[in-house]
Amino acid sequence: MDKINIGFDPNSCQKINTILSNIIADQYVLYTKTRNYHWNVTGEDFIQYHKLFEDQYSAIDDDIDEVAERIRALGGKTPATLGEFLKSTTLKENPGEFPLAKTMIANLLTDHETIIRNLRKDIEICDDLDDVGTEDFLTQLMEKHEKTAWMLRATLDN
Hints:
This protein has helices at residues 10-40, 46-73, 82-88, 101-128, 132-156. It is mainly α.
C-alpha cells in the first residue's frame, strides 16, 4: 500500500480498499456478463436488447475505472486480473449458457440487486470508518445500480 497522509490510519485504508477491491470484482463480472449478453442475444427484440446491453456495459466500464481510481487514491493497488476478480466476486457466472433474452434481463437484474445489497453494507462500513468520500462515492454507485435495476425490472414487466 502506498503511503498517504489524508487523515486515515493505514488499517482503515486497508479495510476500505478491500471493500473497493470486492466491488471492482463484482463490477467486472457484471461487465463481462453484460457484454456476453450483448454479443449473444437473439430473437424478435434483438436490436432493442443489443443496444440496451451495450449501453449498460459501457456505463459499467466507466464505473470500473472510477472504482480503480478510488482504490489508487486511497493508496491501494487495484486488482486487475480475471483470477483476482473471480476470487472476490459475489456474482455467479454461467459459462456456456446462452439464455433467452428475458432470462438474460432477469439474470442481470439479480446481479444488480446483489450489488445494491452489497453496496448498502459497504456504505455502512465506510460510515463507521468515517470515510465520507468513499461513502458518497458508493452511494452514487448504488444509485446507478438502482436505476439500472428499475429499468431491467420494467423491461420484464411487459
